[in-house]
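Complex 195.
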Amino acid sequence: MTDPILIDIPEELSTDRTVVRRYRPGDGVGVFEAVDESREHILPWMPWGPGHQTTDDSEKLVRTWNGKWALREDMSFGMFDKQTGEYLGGTGLHRIDWNLRSFEIGYWIRKSAAGKGHVTDSVKLLTDLAFSKLQANRVFIRCAVENVKSCAVAKRAGFTLEGTIRNSIKDADGRLVDLMMFSLIPEEWESMRVV
Ligand SMILES: CC(C)(COP(=O)(O)OP(=O)(O)OC[C@H]1O[C@@H](n2cnc3c(N)ncnc32)[C@H](O)[C@@H]1OP(=O)(O)O)[C@@H](O)C(=O)NCCC(=O)NCCS
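Predicted structure with coenzyme A bound:
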């Protein structure tokens, strides 16, 4: 198996209206603005929100994500509007198991950009990246059963529901949450491409 650090991974991918790219120093300002306008929208599902109290907090995270990307430990991508360049939210390949070639896709979008399909675009781009460039055997998405919008993204992107993992995580209030597990394997991805 090629050492992951030697794989040349494209740092920017796009559709006609959505760009996903590796974070760069300086992205913290946009990340902070997006989190700050979206706290109520993202907090129930993404407990890291309170960690962004200043632009420096966000910039520190951006630089940390950039470093982990270089080491192939975790690949966070920023999501941007292709026309305006505005920062829209975050996505990425997480919980990477290079031996199994398994990747989790995560996502969030700022409140003002929700409901336009940018997240579904981003998930499709990262799914293609995982299967076409990283020899993925498994790409998965987990979402809280009550997080209807998140589960809808997985379905819209063509992922298969494997089942519900009960009492899988604790939410921001310490409440146990059931997660739906969606995944794609190479054979499914290939058949989606020829349709
Ligand atoms: C989950 C979350 C990322 C979904 O965002 P979203 O904007 O609904 O997802 P998309 O960008 O794919 O947009 C889909 C919506 O745009 C509409 N849409 C418009 N044009 C579209 C297009 N070209 N392609 C796809 N959808 C389009 C869809 O019909 C859908 O609308 P609906 O919600 O009224 O059914 C968002 O709700 C969020 O950030 N939540 C908080 C954080 C979170 O829960 N993260 C996930 C943790 S598992």
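The domain at 4-140 is CATH 3.40.630.30 (Aminopeptidase).
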